[in-house]
Amino acid sequence: MTEDLSPAERYAAARVRAVEAATALAPFREMYEFDLDPFQIEACRALEAGKGVLVAAPTGSGKTIVGEFAVHLALQQGRKCFYTTPIKALSNQKYTDLVRRYGADKVGLLTGDNSVNSEAPVVVMTTEVLRNMLYAGSQSLLGLGHVVMDEVHYLSDRFRGAVWEEVIIHLPESVTLVSLSATVSNAEEFGDWLDTVRGDTEVIVAEERPVPLWQHVMAGRRMYDLFEEETDHGGRGSARREVNPDLVRLARMENQRTYNPKDRRRGKMVREADRERERRQRTRIWTPGRPEVIERLDAEGLLPAITFIFSRAGCEAAVQQCMHAGLRLNGDDARLRVREIVEERTAAIPIEDLHVLGYYEWLEGLERGIAAHHAGMLPTFKEVVEELFVRGLVMAVFATETLALGINMPARSVVLEKLVKWNGEQHADITPGEYTQLTGRAGRRGIDVEGHAVVLWQRGMDPAALAGLAGTRTYPLRSSFKPSYNMAVNLVHQFGRHRSRELLETSFAQFQADKSVVGISRQVQKNEEGLEGYREGMTCHLGDFEEYARLRRELKDRETELAKQGAAQRRAAAASSLEKLKPGDVIHVPTGKFAGLALVLDPGIPAGRTDGHRGFEYHDGPRPLVLTAERQVKRLASVDFPVPVEPLERMRIPKSFNARSPQSRRDLASALRTKAGHIAPERHRKQRAAAADDREIARLRTELRAHPCHGCDEREDHARWAERYHRLQRDTRQLERRIEGRTNTIARTFDRIVALLTELDYLRGDEVTEDGRRLARLYGELDLLASECLRADVWEGLSPAELAACVSALVYESRQSDDAVAPKVPGGKAKAALGEMVHIWGRLDAMEEDFKINQAEGVGQREPDLGFAWAAYQWASDRSLDEVLREAEMPAGDFVRWSKQVIDVLGQIAAAAPREGSTVAKNARKAVDALLRGVVAYSSVG
Questions:
Q1: How would you classify the pairing of strands 107-110 and 115-116?
Q2: 696 with 560: CB under 8 angstroms?
Q3: SS3 sequence, 69-133?
Q4: Does residue 612 carry a pLDDT above 80?
Q5: What are phi and psi of 167, to 5 degrees?
Q6: Measuring CA to CA, which residue among 384, 289, 267, 299 is closest to residue 337?
Q7: Partner of 291 for a Cys bridge, out of 90, 325, 689, 717, CB 3.0 to 4.6 A?
Q8: CA angle 153-408-122, nearest 5°?
Q9: Contact in structure between 824 and 768 (CB atoms under 8 Å)
């Protein structure tokens, strides 16, 4: 190509290459076997120019390369780089990658329970570790040049998201921030905020998937494309995507009601033919079983695949089903390699524990190329599954949605069994953002030409709705930032109350709230301009028309109020009269479709409501069942009785009367007409309107007539403008109230927290007390409760195992929040201490209510959960894994995770507890040693 260029152009191109060769990016690009994508080059150049960057790109697009360039840049400049991740598994994975590239002497790891070479120039850590370092003013921050925040979209997480914002706000200005996010629909808004709090930040959005994605629906024996072939399939073009008409036909055919048993006019032969056709249709449409899906994908060359099942038990059951079906996806060589890797990775686990952990069944599945992956598994087992899958030795993984969050485990295909999942409160449809996150795993860069997302057919599926889910790129980043007690004392200690308040107002949460206020404020300004115009339109030369309009409005409001009262009184009188009806009463229904003579068969009064006394309310009042003179049996409602009703006569209802029998209805209706057909209903006299005697109405009418504007020829024109003015003014006041409720929300919450901490003597103005300094070292959801327990010596004198049991109540949260069975807890001192903890929580809960600190908004202390106390006590008392897991009825993965969280908080308590005259710090360290054994110790991922 260069020979086609002119000498001047060749010279210019050579100059560009020379400039590029002198950059840090040039040697970095040579480290990779493939060329970097334009968005990666753009981000790296911005970093080298000294700017911060926000990179929002699809899963698997290679955005971590930008983070790795920040590491490269920091090392070249002789500065430090911290690489933060949301979960320990990702930290371990990234640590391994960077050690492989730069060597173990230059890379460290900090994950709360792991500390490796922590003073290295490059340290991989969880985001919480960096937050704690910032509050503690750690010396490790000296010389820090770059911070990479991988998976920064985690700041939407309602439990942990605040940590990301704390880090972004509190990092020194000299630190360059690299934010890596999944594709979000408001990246520009997030970038604007980063620009505000961090300085010059370049926003780079890459929406194009590196590997095109094909969407399918598997129904029966067929796999249908979700979209028509000739339209855009990879999300690369702008062609309009049409739903596959075959799928639409399939849905219509399934939903068609071919047989209606109520249709008695159809012949038997026709109904039989319909049933046969329906049977034939059903054989074409069914949800394929799990082994059948894997076999189909294997036949189509679409393995390896991840099948997302929103249930741990469902994942384990899927593996068993595939094994029982005789499914084998690995050959002999692969099977031997699997066994070799598994035995090497699990060599540290005692043989007696392997049986408890279901090792042999798990290994059999792996050898066949099949595995589950979920949070209930032992972390070591999960790591092995991930490693084997990446190596192509496991071809089918059944996983919960947690796998979609971060772990680098791409597949050729992703299967979604259902589009509904349990969100902790109810079964809800998955969102477009969740669908994008799950299907983002499909398509391995550099391996697959295309990725495939397969949704299994479910009864009642709407292909158009699925197409909307697949075609929507809506995944907005929403802040979950809320001040906490620990955050408050740390901020006040570092910056004082006033500066802390200002800092919190720079949070993304407040930025979003304020931004939403901007639109409302603009509407208020427009409304105010409109009000000015309306005010001119209602100006009257005879007097103050605004005052005249107010009198008219007051008169109208008073008349409306009295009319409503009158209607309510009439309804009450009618309902009261209906309550007095008895079976056999002959009445005249005043209005409605069934107006006329009727016999009461059942008064329709709710059970427990007699003689005017109400056991419970019907919103519509009594609903009498009557027989009309036209032989119809109907249940009437209060709307049929706008006026009170009185019995005209009484009749005996035969015991043999059957409302379903036409003959019975005919005979009784005939007797009704004979008995009462000649009686004319008493006409209801219309009562005098309450407005006629109301003094307030009389006064307002007098003032209206006396007002100068009453005689104006253009009075009604002015009145129309006045009515518009009033409506717009009312709307404007509502908008102003919304603005008032949204501005300074974070700062107001902070003020309430500070007030409560002042009441408890953790703060005195800008001074943090000794108790406050202890609270500053306690991180976690129940930080204040832990501090109060230390202050009240609740844990004094407890053994290490008893202390572990008590501390477990600060971290554990049962998956079933409505457990009816009281959890088993240790006896003796531990039981008394747990009881005292619950008592202290009750006192704090009452204080939070007094100070208007709302747990529903994510602020405050939840009730301690004692569900893990017995398991923690048993494990710290050196009981066997088999015994602990059997009694706890808990998967090994959950047990390890909760144990590590207890260890983490015990470490905080050991650091925060008083050194002199207290046994808590010493016993907390002993409890850590007692818990950190066996499966808990050899699980490298928490």
A1: antiparallel
A2: no
A3: HHHHHHHHHCCEEEEEECCHHHHHHHHHHHHHHHCCCCEEEECCCCEECCCCCEEEEEHHHHHHH
A4: no
A5: -65, -50
A6: 384
A7: 325
A8: 75
A9: no
* Distance from C-alpha of 710 to C-alpha of 713, rounded to nearest angstrom: 9
On whether the CB atoms of residues 193 and 217 are closer than 8 A, the answer is no
Phi, psi of 192 (to 5 degrees): -60, -40
Listed residue (677, 630, 632, 633) closest to 651, CA to CA: 677
Whole-angstrom distance, CA of residue 155 vs CA of residue 665: 69
Phi first, then psi, for residue 47 (nearest 5°) are -65, -45
One-letter identity of residue 283: T
| CA–CA distance, 32 with 40 (Å, rounded to integer) | 13
Average pLDDT over residues 163-168: 89
How many Å apart are CA 600 and CA 651, to the nearest integer?
Answer: 9
Rounded-to-integer distance, Cα 407 and Cα 382, Å: 11
CA proximity to 589, closest of 627, 622, 631, 618: 627
Give CA–CA dist 697/815, Å, rounded. Answer: 62
Q: Who's near 80: CB < 8 A, 6+ residues apart? A: 74, 121, 122, 123, 140, 143, 144, 145, 146
Conformation bin of residue 890: beta by default, left when phi > 0, alpha when psi is -120 to 50: beta
Q: What is the pTM of this model?
A: 0.69
Q: C-alpha distances in angstroms, 607 versus 574, 600, 614?
A: 20, 17, 9
- Nearest partner of 72 among 37, 109, 97, judged by Cα: 97
Is 180 in a helix, a strand, or coil? strand
Rounded to whole angstroms, what are the CA distances from 414 to 68, 216, 435, 468, 873? 28, 10, 11, 18, 42
Helix axes 508-537, 715-742, angle to 10 degrees: 170
Give yes or no for residue 408 having a pLDDT over 90: no
- The mean per-residue pLDDT over the stretch 122-149 comes to 89
Residue 802 to residue 721: CA distance in whole angstroms: 76
Tokens of 188: 């520009």
What is the rounded radius of gyration, in angstroms, for the C-alpha atoms of the chain?
37
Task: Give me the phi and psi of 235, to 5 degrees please.
Answer: 75, 20
Q: Decide: 905 and 942 in contact? Cβ < 8 Å.
A: no
What are the tokens at 596? 């006329």
* Overall residue count recorded for the chain in this entry: 942
Evaluate the omega torsion of the peptide bond into residue 304 and state whether it is cis, within 30 degrees of 0.
yes
User: What is the C-alpha separation between 502 and 36, in angstroms, rounded?
Assistant: 41
What's the helix, strand, coil split of the chain in %, to 5?
50, 10, 35
Q: Is the pLDDT of residue 869 over 50?
A: yes
CA distance 150 to 909: 29
Ramachandran region of residue 661, left (φ > 0), alpha (ψ -120 to 50) or beta?
A: beta
829-835 contacts: CB < 8 A, separation 24 or more?
829/797, 829/798, 829/799, 829/802, 830/798, 830/801, 830/802, 830/805, 830/806, 830/869, 830/873, 833/794, 833/795, 833/798, 833/802, 833/806, 834/805, 834/806, 834/809, 834/864, 834/866, 834/869
Choose the weakest-confidence range: 411-415, 612-616, 714-718, 900-904: 612-616
Q: List the structure tokens of 119.
A: 């003073």
Structure tokens, 85: 């991740």
Phi, psi of 425, rounded to the nearest 5 degrees: -125, -35
Distance (Å, rounded) from C-alpha 358 to C-alpha 360?
Answer: 6
Q: Strand order of the sheet with strand 633-635?
A: 633-635, 625-628, 596-602, 585-589, 649-650
- CA–CA distance, 162 with 479 (Å, rounded to integer): 8
Q: Per DSSP, which regions of 543-641 are E strands?
A: 585-589, 596-602, 625-628, 633-635
List of E strands, 504-544: none
Separation between Cα atoms, residue 805 and residue 829, nearest integer Å: 11
Q: How confident is the model at residue 769 (pLDDT cuts 50, 70, 90)?
A: very high
